């Protein structure tokens, strides 16, 4: 995972470039794409007729529980995959798993799910164990603190307790750029945010959109810095096991961009931050 500001030009140019080679897909829920048959019969799904997605929930605005959605989950990542599942003519099912097991490739290699979707940053290290779709989101890291904390930058973290999510690029960034801080691992944002509110940690270093959600939820907290890390998110698949599904998802990602659906979903989550894809 990574932190995020919304770099309009970079997202458009970078994502359009990497997706340009993919073909278009169908529009309706029962359509087929990328050579896939209705119901995804030839996509090697772990459960016939179902696109099973593993995600670490909650991680707003990318993954949240939402009883109003068909799968019981929503967020930017899940909404994109719901559209892709519809176009492939399959049902979307979401399983809540730990991010560390997901980003390491363990969960996918075990055949627990078809796709990992949890704001996963594409890195060379992760590519050793995972196949990634084309990038679908550009991200930044950020630092969230209580307004009266006296912390105004990463330089003020010496001796402070900085919460990070284990296995993330946010943790790597903190270790490299705040070597004198006391870095505290948490399984997910679901533990990080309450820990900051309870005063158990002094700051959270993680993806910008997630910290921004907390800032909006409680104005006594503020994002004091954002860090450009050139990170991009991709959906993850088990290494070398399902090239047909990988191709089908890439094809539909391009279709969603071309027909305006991606932009509509993007704006529903990020437009208030002045973002544009």
TrEMBL record:
SMART domains: PBPb, PBPe. Pfam families: SBP_bac_3. GO terms for cellular component: cell envelope; membrane. PROSITE patterns: PROKAR_LIPOPROTEIN, SBP_BACTERIAL_3. Its main location: other. Residues 50-273 form the Solute-binding protein family 3/N-terminal domain. Keywords: Signal. Transmembrane segments: none annotated. Gene3D superfamilies: Periplasmic binding protein-like II. It is found in: Cell envelope. InterPro entries: Iontro_rcpt_C, SBP_3_CS, Solute-binding_3/MltF_N. Belongs to the bacterial solute-binding protein 3 family. This is Transporter substrate-binding domain-containing protein.
